[in-house]
Write a structure and sequence with these properties.
Belongs to the AHA1 family. This is SRPBCC domain-containing protein. InterPro entries: ASHA1/2-like_C (IPR013538), START-like_dom_sf (IPR023393). With 157 residues, the chain is of the alpha+beta class. It contains 4 helices and 7 strands, in the order E-H-H-E-E-E-E-E-E-H-H. A 7-stranded antiparallel β-sheet has the order 1-7-6-5-4-3-2. A hairpin with a 3-residue loop joins strand 4 (51-61) and strand 5 (65-75). The longest helix is centred in the last third of the chain and has 22 residues, at 116-137. It is globular and about 45 Å long.
C-alpha cells in the first residue's frame, strides 16, 4: 500500500500554464528560495531556523511532469533528522474531461513520520490553496509558514 502523501485538483487552465505555475516556486510556496526553480538543477528553501531543505530538480517534462529530489533537509521540531531526506516530490499534469488535473505526491512522506501532520497540513495549504490560486487567479499565497507553525505549536529557537 502506498502511504505517501498525495493530493490533486482540477483547473480550467492548460497543462502548459499549470507547468509554468508549478515552476514559479516563489509564487506559491516561499519567497525565501535561493536558486533557479524552472530548470534542472538545485534550489534551497528555508523558513527561519525551523525548516530548511535542498532540492534537486531531476525531471521537467513540459505540460506533464515535474520531479524534485530532497537531497538535504532539516526540521528543528523532529527527533529523526533523516525525515524528508532522499524523498521525492512529484507533480503530474494530465488532461481529464476537458480540465487539467494536477496531482501532487510527496513520495516517502508517510504517516509514521513525526512531521507528517504538519507537513501534510502545509502541503494541503500550499498545493490546494496557493498553487491552485496562482494557476486560476494569477496570484498565489506564498510564505504561509508562520500560520502553520503557530497552529501546530512549533517554536523557533
Amino acid at each position: 500500500m502506498n502511504q505517501s502523501y498525495s493530493t490533486f485538483f482540477k483547473v480550467d487552465q492548460s497543462p502548459e500554464e499549470v507547468f509554468a505555475a508549478i515552476n514559479n516556486v516563489r509564487g506559491w510556496w516561499s519567497e525565501e528560495i535561493e536558486g533557479i526553480t524552472d530548470e534542472l538543477g538545485e534550489f534551497k528553501y528555508h523558513y527561519q531556523d525551523i525548516h530548511r531543505c535542498t532540492i534537486q530538480i531531476t525531471e521537467l517534462v513540459p505540460g506533464k511532469k515535474v520531479v524534485w529530489h530532497i537531497t538535504d533537509n532539516y526540521f528543528n521540531f523532529v527527533k529523526d533528522k533523516s525525515e524528508w531526506k532522499d524523498t521525492d516530490i512529484v507533480f503530474e499534469i494530465a488532461k481529464k474531461d476537458g480540465k487539467t488535473e494536477v496531482r501532487f505526491t510527496h513520495v516517502g512522506l508517510v504517516p509514521t513520520y513525526e512531521c507528517y501532520a504538519v507537513c501534510t497540513d502545509s502541503w494541503g495549504i500550499y498545493i490546494s490553496g496557493s498553487l491552485r490560486d496562482l494557476i486560476t487567479k494569477g496570484k498565489g499565497k506564498p510564505n504561509q509558514s508562520e500560520q502553520i507553525v503557530n497552529k501546530h505549536g512549533i517554536e523557533s529557537s
